[in-house]
Design a protein that fits this description.
Structural class: alpha+beta
Number of strands: 14
Strand content: 35-45%
Order of helices and strands: HEHEHHEHEEEEEEEEEEEH
Shape: globular
Number of helices: 6
Distance between the termini: 48 Å
Length: 289
């Protein structure tokens, strides 16, 4: 890998940032706050990113001795809609759950997944999608951090690692936001990257059985969907990736357990399916007795 210096980072990362600047639009983050979020180092991300980020910006990490969720009140995010109690319990007490994951790549897209892993994911320790079933055979660790800003607001981060290799799968911040192209509240997930971030904004949909679908299927800038954001010397650019879409369907399963089916598409083709089993720790312990 060719290193271009601390400001630009590695050549492959810098070229991606130039693509965002050339094909995206210049934005004012003060006006488009839904595209704001943590910016990553050119050296990489990794499992300690949010500890370092909190220290750098003056956030206080709350005690990890009590249950912590990706959201404090899921019903409030959903505009009062009610999901199955098991689904709500997972989102509001995420730290109390253990995770198993199975990946299912389309054979056509698997080589591209390996190429992205070699060029970006493994080096950056970010967005490290499992490439084979054995990657997750010993499970996935899950750490939820709740950070308090000097203004008293709470921000949540979720860091997941492969138990077998200690490789960081995802390190992202979670919250909700409003976007111009959708009338309700959306779930926002922000993944720090060198000199910027990837942001997935998903509209929620509660089904008749109490399951929750999170959908990023917009068509234009300002809709729910996938965004790249690059920042340089106080200036920001954003690129809406219209052809990248995903759906996460979270539903109650066995007692104390929820499952999630995560489908990712590009140009209308399914390239990856991820299946999660999320079991409350006390329930998991009982099942092993």
């Amino acid at each position: 890998m060719i290193w271009l210096g601390a400001n630009r980072g590695y050549l492959s990362d810098w070229m991606t940032q130039q693509w965002v600047r050339a094909t995206g639009r210049r934005i004012e983050l003060a006006r488009l706050s839904w595209l704001d979020g943590p910016t990553g180092s050119t050296r990489g991300i990794g499992p300690q990113f949010f500890d370092d980020y909190a220290a750098r910006v003056g956030f206080e990490i709350q005690s990890e001795g009590s249950p912590r969720g990706l959201v404090s009140d899921l019903s409030a995010v959903l505009g009062g809609a009610q999901v199955h109690p098991a689904v709500a319990a997972f989102y509001e007490r995420t730290s109390e759950y253990q995770m198993d994951c199975w990946s299912e790549w389309s054979p056509v897209f698997r080589p591209f997944g390996r190429l992205l892993a070699l060029l970006f994911s493994r080096r950056l320790e970010q967005l490290n999608v499992p490439l084979a079933g054995l990657d997750t055979h010993r499970g996935i660790s899950s750490r939820v951090l709740v950070m308090r800003t000097p203004q008293g607001e709470l921000q949540t981060a979720w860091v997941r690692q492969l138990v077998a290799s200690k490789r960081t799968l995802y390190a992202g911040s979670y919250g909700s936001c409003d976007v111009p192209g959708y009338s309700g509240r959306c779930i926002k997930v922000c993944f720090p990257l060198p000199n910027g971030r990837a942001i997935v904004i998903m509209r929620p949909q509660v089904d008749h059985d109490g399951s929750l679908a999170l959908i990023s299927d917009g068509q234009d800038f300002g809709d729910p969907g996938f965004y790249f954001v690059v920042e340089h010397q106080g200036v920001a650019w954003a690129r809406y990736v219209r052809n990248m879409k995903e759906t996460i369907h979270v539903y109650a399963a066995e007692p104390g357990t929820v499952r999630a089916d995560h489908t990712l598409r590009i140009w209308g083709w399914v390239f990856l399916r991820l299946h999660y089993r999320l079991a409350a720790k006390e329930q998991r312990a009982e099942s092993l007795v």
